[in-house]
## 1
Amino acid sequence: MPKAQIIDGKAIAESVRQEITNRAAKLLETSGKRPGLAVVLVGEDPASQVYVRNKDKAAEACGFHSVKHTLAADTSEDAVLALVDQLNNDPDIHGILVQLPLPGHIDESKVLRLIRPEKDVDGFHPVNVGLLTAGERDSALVPCTPAGSLVLLKRTLGDTLSGLNAVVVGRSNIVGKPMASLLLQESCTVTIAHSRTRDLPDVVRSADIVVAAVGRPEMIKGDWIKPGATVIDVGINRIPAPDLGEGKARLVGDVNFAEAAEVAGAITPVPGGVGPMTIAMLMVNTLTAARRLLDLPEEE
Ligand code: NDP
C-alpha cells in the first residue's frame, strides 16, 4: 500500500460533471436554453478523433447542445476561418473548441485568435490569457487542464492554498503558464521550472505542491519529493510494455508514481488523475460561457 493518498480524478471529475448536468437542467428550466458546444476537428489524427468524440459525448451527457464539425485534412485555412466565423455568430453556440494540432498548412494562432473570447472554452485566446494573468479569473475562461488540476488540489488540501510553495515543472501556454497564474492567484509562492532550470531535483524538493507538466515519462523521482507534498501529475506518456504482450504500451505520467507515492502526502495517478478533469472543466467552461452570453448572473 502506498503511503500517499491517491487523488481519484475520475471520481472528482464525475462529481463535477454531475453538478454541471444539474445546473444545465436548471438553466433549461428557467431560460429554455441549453449550453451549446461546437467542436471542430480538421484531419484524421487518431488521438484527436478520440478526444473530439469524448468531448462530444460528455457534452451530450450533460444535456448540452453539442455539434461536431469534421473537416478533411486538406481543408483550406480560409474555410476553417469561415467556419469559426459562422460559429462566432451562431446564437445557439456558446463554446467553440478547435482541436489541436491543426494540419501544417493552417496557421493555428490565426484560427484561435478569431474565436470570440467569450466563446473560447479552451481559454487559449490572448484576451483570456491576459485576463487570467491580470488576476481577473472571474471574467476569463481558464484553460481546462490547469483549471482541473486546481480543483484536484482544492479537493485534497481544502480551499486555502495561501502561502504554500508550489513548483510547476513545464512552461507551456496550455498547462505550465496558466497553472502558475492560477496558483499565484491562490497566493502560493510559485516557481516555474523548465528545461533550463538548474538543480531541478532541489527546486522540486522545496515544493509543498508539485505540478508536473513535462511530457517525459517518470522523470520526477521519489527522492525529489518533499515528504507530505501534494503531487499533481499532468503528464500522459505512452511507453512500451512488453510484459502486456508484443507491441503493447502503457500510460505513465511525468512522475515515478511508485517512488513518489511512498513519500508524498497525496498524488494523482496516471491514468485516472488529471486526464478526466480536463473534459469535466470543458463542460464547466461551456456552461459559464453560456450563462455570460445569455446575460444570466453567475450562480452561487
Ligand atoms: P510541452 O511539450 O508544450 O511543454 C513541456 C515543458 O516541459 C516545456 O516547458 C519544457 O521546457 C519542459 N521540459 C522538457 N524537458 C524538461 C526537463 N528535462 N526538465 C525540465 N523541464 C523540461 O508540453 P505540454 O505542456 O503540452 O504537456 C506536458 C505533458 O502534459 C505532456 O505529457 C502532455 O501529454 C500532458 N498533457 C496532459 C493533459 C491532460 O489532459 N492530462 C492535457 C495537456 C497536456 P522548455 O520550455 O524549456 O522547453
## 2
Amino acid sequence: MEQTFIMVKPDGVQRNLVGDIVSRFENKGYKLVSAKLMQVPTELAEEHYGEHKDKPFFGELVNFITSGPVFAMVWEGENVIATARKMMGATNPAESDIGTIRGDYGITVGKNVIHGSDSPESAEREIGLFFPEGGLINYTKNIDQWVY
Ligand code: RTP
Ligand code: MG
C-alpha cells in the first residue's frame, strides 16, 4: 500500500491545527503509520528542501521550518500521495481552493501550514529522512473493510 510523508509546519503547530489535520486524513480513510513532534535540525531542513537550494526563498524556507516544532507523519492508503496533495491545496494559499487545508487555513506562500510529498520518489526519500529509525507500524484497522 502507498505511503506518504506529511508534516504540519511550525505555523500549523503554533496555530493548533495538528488535530484538525490528523482528523482530515483519518476521516478520508487513510491510516496513520507513524507520527512524532520534532524540532527539525538545520541540516535536515536543507536536505529535505534540497531541490530549492538555488531559489531566492531557500534561506527563509529553512529558517521557517526550523523555527519551531513540526508534526511529522506517515500516512498510508490507496493513491495517498496524490490525494494528500489535493487535500492540501495549491502551494500558495491565495490560489488554494476553499475546502483544502491551505485554502482554509493559510494566507501567504511562506506560511502554508503543511507539507506533503509530491511523488513516490519524494515520499520514499522524505520518509527515510524524517524516520531514519524506520519502525513504521503495520496493522489492520476494523474500518479498512468499509473503506476498500
Ligand atoms: P511543500 O514542499 O512545502 O509541501 O510545498 P509544495 O511542494 O507545494 O511547494 P514547493 O514548490 O516544493 O515549495 C516548497 C515551499 O517553499 C515555500 N515557497 N516560498 N516565497 C516563495 O515564492 C515561495 N515559493 C515556495 C512554500 O512554503 C512551499 O511550501
Ligand atoms: Mg514540495
